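ok so I'm stuck.
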Amino acid sequence: MTGTLLSTSDFALAFSKFVENMNGMAPSSFNPFAERLRAHFGVDDLTTLVVLDRPFPPRDRTTVELALREMVRARGRASDLVAPTAASLFLPTFFDLVAEQPPGYPPVRLAAVERVVLPLPDGESLSCVKLGAYLVAGTAGERFVAHVSKHDVGLDKSLVVSFVARDLEQTQSLVAEFDGLLRDRSVHRGQVLSLDGSEDLGVQYHNFPIVRREDLVLPDRVIITLERLVVGYSRHAARLSGHKHHRRRGVLLHGRPGTGKTLIAKYLSRAIPGLTTFFLTGCGIRQLAETCALARRLQPSLVVLEDVDLIAAERANNDRSALLFELLNQMDGVGEDADITFLLTSNRPEVLEPALAARPGRIDATIELPLPDADARSRLIDLYASGLDCVLDDREAILTRTKGASPAFIRELVRRAALLAAEESMVGAIRIGDRSYQDALDELLVASGPFAKSLLGLHEADS
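replied:
not stuck anymore, here's the structure
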């Protein structure tokens, strides 16, 4: 084997660079974060400190951020926020960051604080700390650390706040103080929201238009019963609980497509001051367990599960069957003293009947939404045409042709009639008359074909 021989001077230069590179790669025994902690607590041995971890789902990050901000400033406290990091550690715990790094591993450094900007219910946003440590100093020698980190192992993807103090009693007191702030300052309380599986947020806020009672064109018995079951129980919650009457209830709202089940849910979501409403649809049903846990924490709560029949297939479909029985288990598991209403909507209640009959007691009431009769259809036309110049000389003819129509169909009819009227007179106010409605009905009932009728919410009228 032959090779190029280096001169003495070249070898010396190459060896010098090798030593320089190795020195650069070798870890430093100095840990700036550990030194900051020693100075902060006035101790040499950091293993004498007490650490208590509080895990949270990532969707609580905004509430945790607001609670931490208030806590580190309370009662004249001052804080310094630092971000210890170790390139050799993927998700370091507090003790990982103060422990001596093994030989050959990069040392712990202080880096820029990493943040994520998340939305708030009012349309504003909040900059939240993803990884960082608050070094807090209070009056009378109070010292503690609140370390924000992340746990990501398998299905466990938690936001973790670690409280560090000199003794167990102080650390427990800090955790209790923080839990109190969380209960009082939850950004989710009183909101209408849904949960998803995204890593950083997992919460979507819904700013639905306000649905008034007069917007519900339904038989009085339906509205009164719903208000009694949902609003009444919450209004008298304390008295009922004192008499050992359970406050948890399950209501099944069923009817033909387009009869207003979602509209009622939106109305009820604003019917109780401080009510927190959760909407679960489609894939969101897989967040049921977490939704129920949050509903318990933020009660009074309303959990709306739309089109629940879609997850209630035959038992042979194991995936859907499991979701349905998970729903029943969660309804049973919230506790009888919980001020939580489960509002289930369905177009096909017969699909649910076998499962509900096998697990009685989960549903306290079933309420059917009928198709609107002639008087209700007339009121719906006036409701949806509000603000328009609408004059009908032969209202009865329109009502006859719309027999079997759902509120959704009537709403589309008014919208289509307004469009036709606007195209007929290109300037000035839009005036909707009999001809506009009849032409719109021709489009909806004839030109669109039979398939479109069912999509738009026109059904064979009940006898």
